[in-house]
Specification:
seven-stranded antiparallel β-sheet; alpha+beta
Amino acid sequence: MRMIIKVSSVFVLLIMAVSCATTPRAIPEKYNLDNELESVDKIFTIREQRWQEVDDQSIIIRTDRRTYYLLVLRRPMDKRYSIPRFRLLNTSYVTPGFDRIHVRDNTGTQYYDIDKIYRLKGREQAEEIKERLSES
């Protein structure tokens, strides 16, 4: 009987540790823009995207003259990067929850999973969202 209790205790502790490690972190509420912006499941990219860093957990990508997207990352970017260079790992399309960007500078490379992608209605809305998110 003691052996069953010991094995069960170890099993329960192991399950608890694994569940804590795999539980996704909650994204801050300021990034929940589902009521304001159109959430997209996939975006098609081109070779040369234009990037704007909004804050430590979001960036704006411009895929052509009029098409802007807000990419919300699952975790904040490391602030040690002084002049970050962003690059999408998948060059044809990007899907939130599966794809990620990598940020590289002279100190190294970090990978950041994309949690959500929102379509923005032009440069004005991109600037408005950038200002709002960087303030809070």
